[in-house]
Design brief:
The complex is a heterodimer of chains A (248) and B (243). With 248 residues, chain A is an all-alpha fold. Chain A is built from 14 helices and 2 strands, in the order βαααβααααααααααα. Chain A has 2 domains: 3-74, 434 Repressor (Amino-terminal Domain) (Orthogonal Bundle); 82-208, no CATH class. Chain A has helices at residues 5-15, 21-28, 32-41, 46-55, 60-65, 82-87, 91-101, 128-136, 141-149, 153-161, 167-177, 182-187, 202-208, 212-247, and strands spanning 3-4, 43-44. In chain A, helix 2 (21-28) packs across helix 4 and helix 7 packs across helix 14. Chain B has 243 residues and is mainly alpha-helical. Chain B has one domain: Rhopdopsin 7-helix transmembrane proteins (Up-down Bundle). Chain B is 78% helix and 0% strand. Chain B is globular and about 75 Å long. The chains are: A mainly alpha (248), B mainly alpha (243). Chain A binds chain B through residues 92, 126, 226, 229-230, 233-234, 236-237, 239-240, 242-248, and chain B through 29, 32, 82-83, 85-88, 170-173, 176, 222, 225-226, 228-230, 232, 239-240, 242-243.
Chain lengths: 248, 243
C-alpha cells in the first residue's frame, strides 16, 4: 500500500521545513504533475519517498521506517541470508564465477577463483525478484503471503514473472519467510544494497562460500529458467510475425 | 442515428481499402486488399441509395441483394482463411476448409437461392423491406432469407472464436491482443445478428447495431494488426536477449 499523503506531507515538513514542492521536485527529479497527482489521490508511491530521501541525503530505509506501514523496518535489522545474497547475483555473473573456478585450460583460475575476476554487477538484475523469492521459499511461502495479504497467487506470480513486486508485498514476503526486510526491497530495486546496509562485498563472499557443486546446480537452474523465458519470447515473436505476415 | 452508423462503417471500410492500395500494388497480401474491397462493396449494397442505383441497373428484381449475400460469403471465407492461418488456428482452418465448412457453405448458398426464388422479388428495395411489406408469406420468407445469409458468416467467425480468445489471453503485443478482442467481439455481434428474426419490432434498431458493430469490429481488428506491424517495422523492438 502506498504511503498516505497526510503522513507523507508531515514527514516532508519535518525533513525539509523550508523547501517548497517545486524545490523538492527539482532536486529529486520527480515530475511536478506526478507528485501533485499522488498527493491529490492521497497515495504517495514509495519510490517518490525514496527519490526525495536520496536528494536530501537521508537514508531511504530510515525514511520509509517512519511510516506506520513500514515501522517494522526500524526494528532490529536482520542481515540478508547467504541465499538471499546469492539470489541477487546476476545470472551472467554467476556463470562467470563458474568459468572463473574452472581450470586455466578453460579460461579460469582454478578452485579458489581470483581477484582478477570482474566485480559483480549491482542488484537488482533481470530476474532478481523471482530469484529472491525462490531463495527464501520453503514451498509454502506463496500461499502464506497470499493468505496474509489477500493477493491472489496468480497475481503474485505474474508480478514475479514481470520482475516486479510492490514494496508492500516485498515486505509481506520477507515477513512470511521470516527473513530480514531489506532483501525484497533491494531485489525490487527500491533501495540499493548500500542503502540497505549490506556490507560491501557481501554478495561476493556469499558467492565464494558456495561449493562448486552448489554453484554449478544454481547456475544450471538459472540457465534453465533463462532458456525457458528466451524460448517463450522467441515463440511469441514467431507467432506475432505469422500474424503480421498473414493479416498485416 | 442508423444512417450515421451505416455511412461511418462505409467510410471506415472505404478508407482502409484505399489505404491498402499501395501495399497491394507492391504485392503484399493482395487477398487482404480484396477482402476489404469486398466488404466495402457489401456495405455499399446494404445502404439504400447505392443499393437502389445498382439494383435498377440489374433489372429491379433485387438481384443486387442476392449478389450482396454472395459478396459477404466470399469476403468472410477469405477473411476466415487469413485469420486462421495468421493466428495459427489449425482447428479452425480444418473446420472452414474441410467437409464441414464446404457443406455449410453449400447449404447456406442453396437455402439463400431457394428462398430468394420463392419470394416475389419485384421492385428494388434495400434490405428487401418493400418485399417484406407485400404480405405475410413474403415477410416470413425475408426473415428466413436473412437468417440463411447470416448462417455462413456466423459459422466462420464462430470457428475462429476459440483462437481469438486464446490470442487475447496470451502475452503477445498489446495491439495484437486488442485486435483479437475486436475480432472476437465482431464474432459475438454476428452470432447475435442471427437472432434478428426473433427481435421484436420495437427493438428493431438492435439489428442494425449488431450488423454494423460486427463489420466495424472486424475491420478495425484487422486494421490494428496492420498498424502494429507498421509500428514494429518502424521501431525495431528489442529481440530476446541474455540480459
Amino acid at each position: 500500500m502506498p504511503l498516505p499523503a497526510k503522513a507523507f506531507q508531515l514527514w516532508l515538513h519535518q525533513v525539509a521545513p523550508s523547501a517548497s514542492t517545486a524545490d523538492i521536485c527539482r532536486i529529486s527529479g520527480i515530475k511536478r504533475t506526478t507528485l501533485a497527482q499522488q498527493l491529490v489521490r492521497g497515495k504517495v508511491a514509495e519510490t517518490t519517498l525514496v527519490s526525495i530521501s536520496r536528494a536530501l541525503n537521508l537514508n531511504p530505509l530510515a525514511a520509509l521506517a517512519t511510516f506506520e506501514h513500514y515501522a517494522e523496518l526500524a526494528t532490529s535489522p536482520q542481515p540478508p541470508t547467504p541465499a538471499e545474497l546469492v539470489s541477487q547475483v546476476a545470472t551472467m555473473d554467476l556463470l562467470r564465477a563458474v568459468i572463473s573456478r574452472s581450470s586455466p585450460a578453460y579460461g579460469g583460475y582454478g578452485d579458489s577463483g581470483s581477484s582478477l575476476t570482474p566485480g559483480l554487477g549491482p542488484a537488482p538484475h533481470a530476474t532478481s525478484v523471482r530469484n529472491w523469492v525462490d531463495a527464501i521459499d520453503d514451498g509454502e511461502l506463496r500461499h502464506r503471503v497470499s493468505a496474509a495479504t489477500g493477493v491472489a497467487p496468480q497475481n503474485y506470480s505474474a508480478q514475479l514473472t514481470a520482475n516486479r513486486l510492490s514494496p508492500e508485498l516485498a515486505v509481506a514476503t520477507s515477513r512470511a519467510a521470516g527473513v530480514g526486510f531489506t532483501g525484497g526491497l533491494v531485489a525490487t530495486g527500491l533501495i540499493t544494497e548500500e542503502e540497505a546496509g549490506w556490507p560491501p562485498g557481501a554478495k561476493q563472499s556469499a558467492l565464494d562460500a558456495l561449493s562448486d557443486g552448489e554453484l554449478a546446480s544454481l547456475a544450471g537452474e538459472r540457465l534453465q529458467a533463462l532458456g525457458k523465458s528466451l524460448r517463450r519470447q522467441e515463440q511469441e515473436q514467431a507467432q506475432t510475425e505469422k500474424i503480421w505476415e498473414n493479416l498485416g | 442515428m442508423i444512417g450515421i452508423l451505416q455511412w461511418t462503417t462505409l467510410a471506415v471500410c472505404g478508407v482502409v481499402t484505399l489505404a491498402r492500395i499501395p501495399s497491394a500494388l507492391r504485392g503484399q497480401n493482395r487477398s487482404l486488399f480484396s477482402i476489404f474491397a469486398l466488404m466495402t462493396l457489401a456495405i455499399l449494397l446494404s445502404i439504400d441509395a447505392p443499393y437502389l442505383a445498382v439494383d435498377r441497373a440489374l433489372g429491379g428484381m433485387n438481384i443486387a441483394n442476392l449478389v450482396l449475400r454472395f459478396v459477404i460469403f466470399a469476403a468472410i471465407f477469405f477473411l476466415g482463411l487469413r485469420v486462421a492461418r495468421g493466428f495459427s488456428a489449425n482447428d479452425a482452418l480444418r473446420l472452414i476448409t474441410g467437409p464441414v465448412g464446404i457443406s455449410v457453405a453449400a447449404a447456406a448458398s442453396l437455402v439463400v437461392i431457394a428462398v430468394f426464388l420463392m419470394m416475389d422479388t419485384a421492385g428494388s428495395s434495400a434490405g428487401l423491406v418493400g418485399v417484406a411489406a407485400k404480405d405475410h408469406r413474403n415477410a416470413a420468407l425475408v426473415e428466413y432469407y436473412g437468417a440463411a445469409g447470416r448462417l455462413y458468416p456466423a459459422f466462420i467467425t464462430a470457428a475462429l472464436f476459440p483462437a481469438m480468445v486464446r490470442t487475447f489471453r496470451s502475452r503477445l503485443p498489446v495491439l495484437v491482443r486488442s485486435s483479437a478482442a475486436l475480432l472476437a467481439l465482431g464474432t459475438v455481434a454476428i452470432s447475435l445478428s442471427l437472432l434478428s428474426p426473433v427481435i421484436p419490432p420495437s427493438l428493431g434498431f438492435l439489428r442494425f447495431v449488431f450488423n454494423y458493430t460486427a463489420i466495424l469490429c472486424l475491420v478495425l481488428g484487422l486494421c490494428l494488426v496492420w498498424i502494429a506491424k507498421t509500428l514494429a517495422v518502424r521501431t525495431p523492438k528489442k529481440q530476446a536477449n541474455f540480459t
